[in-house]
Write a structure and sequence with these properties.
- It is built from two helices and 13 strands.
- The strands form three sheets. The chain has a six-stranded antiparallel sheet with strand order 1-2-10-7-12-5, with no helix packed on it. It has a five-stranded antiparallel sheet with strand order 9-8-11-6-13, with no helix packed on it. Strands 3-4 form a two-stranded antiparallel ribbon.
- The model has no long low-confidence stretch (mean pLDDT 97).
- By secondary structure, it is mainly beta.
- The structure holds dTDP-4-keto-6-deoxyglucose (T46).
- The site of dTDP-4-keto-6-deoxyglucose has 10 residues, from strand 5, strand 6 and strand 11.
- The site of dTDP-4-keto-6-deoxyglucose (T46) has 10 residues, from strand 5, strand 6 and strand 11.
Length: 184
């Protein structure tokens, strides 16, 4: 396992050790002991999620507020996405900054996104299966989000705007300046 820091404290790139042979490959997609040892964090994940999306689908930018905030360990098991994490931690020296990375079933990379971040991704391949671990349960009442095209973040989603497929809920999300307290 290799862990690489990003410019956003606590947001880490995790590359599992892949064992390839004539049959294909094997890798441990998660090992709590190795996760703790290599990341220096003792996050305990209690919920696994999976979503399927076709090309151009953009889910985000989402977070859960306050005590329902979630750290996420995200990966792609089919296809390729551009994954984006936005630092919303009050007092963070990188507040409002984002980190983006291509996650795919070819690079097998994972991104650890701490509590206090907004998260989203866009599907770059024909379709994608996105899997992620959360350290807090889903809490509909604490759901929050920011608009994916907020000029404050200036995120390059790679695909042309006309190719993006965004839910009505996400289209209606506010920009950071209009969002009020994000609860972090
Ligand atoms: C997130 C979630 C959703 N749901 C239900 C609620 C809705 O009826 C349905 C679809 O939910 P939603 O449209 O919020 O799904 P996404 O747009 O993929 O939301 C996720 O997108 C970005 C990328 C994230 O990081 C978050 O985990 C999450 O907000 O699943 C649940 O039952 N449990 C859950 O944990």
């Amino acid at each position: 396992m290799n862990v690489t820091a990003t410019p956003l404290e606590g947001c880490l790139i995790i590359e599992p050790r892949v064992f390839g042979d004539e049959r294909g490959y094997f890798f441990e997609s998660f090992n709590q002991q190795k996760f703790n040892e290599f990341t220096g964090q003792d996050t305990v994940f209690i919920q696994d999620n999976q979503s399927y999306s076709t090309k151009g689908v953009l889910r985000g930018l989402h977070f859960q507020r306050g005590s329902s905030a979630q750290a996420k360990l995200v990966r792609v098991v089919k296809g390729e996405v551009l994954d984006v994490a936005v630092d919303l931690r009050k007092g963070s020296k990188t507040y409002g900054q984002h980190f983006d990375i291509r996650l795919s079933d070819k690079n097998n990379l994972q991104l650890l996104i701490p509590r206090g971040f907004a998260h989203g991704f866009v599907v770059l391949s024909d379709d994608a299966i996105f899997q992620y671990k959360c350290d807090n349960y889903y809490d509909r009442s604490a759901e929050g989000g920011l608009h994916y095209a907020d000029p404050a973040f200036a995120i390059d989603w790679i695909l042309p705007h006309e190719q993006l497929i965004v839910s009505q809920k996400d289209i209606e999300l506010p920009n950071l300046t209009d969002a009020g307290d994000t609860g972090f």
